[in-house]
Request: fold
Amino acid sequence: MIDKRKVKEIMFALGADLCGIASIERFSDAPKGYHPLDVLPTCKSVISFACRFPVGTLKCTSDIPYTRVRNSITPKMDAIALDFCIEMEKYQVVCVPIPTNESQWDKNTGRWRSVVSQKHAAQAAGLGTIGRHSLLITPEFGSMVWLGAVLSEQEFEPDEMKEPLCDNCRLCVDICPVNALDGPELKQQTCYDFAFGDDAETQTWKISCHKCRDICPYNIPYQNLQ
Reply:
């Protein structure tokens, strides 16, 4: 039978930089309708993985590199998840990929949500912890990662969860141009309306703001370029 070591071996071979496993019990606080069991009733483990996001994009004066990398890494993550599920079936293990960048409106809470939260899955799987800026912070790469997840019918040994990395220094809160972080949770629509959209001058869609990611002291991106 396939074990935890083999799961990670497969995920790393497909291109993931980080991989962790969470038990289904760690999702007790998931909103109604967005629990892994709401997607796959037979789910016993959630496998989270991450790929590095190039730190050089933060230093560019042009918005194009960051935007294009974000748009390119999304299908990469989805392809890894899909290929992983197909590979696992060779071991008679049924898995389901969770889309990396696809949200739907949750009328019960008035927020956009992934069918299973990628950030909370990654935190539950021990990849890192969610910071004040609402981004996942990892010990290896700070917040310079993109996340993917897979639901599995087989139970695997879970990884240890990390102790909180963010100490609420509030640098991200203070630098936000639209005060989207000054409440108990991110003001999603405020952030999106300011940071994402069409540029009338260049007639292109772009991401024009990532200041909360730039300023986070836990990013330590250049120390990790080894």
About this structure: Residues 221-226 have pLDDT under 50 and may be disordered. The longest helix spans residues 64-89. The first strand starts at residue 18 and ends at 23. The CA atoms of residues 128 and 139 lie 7 Å apart.
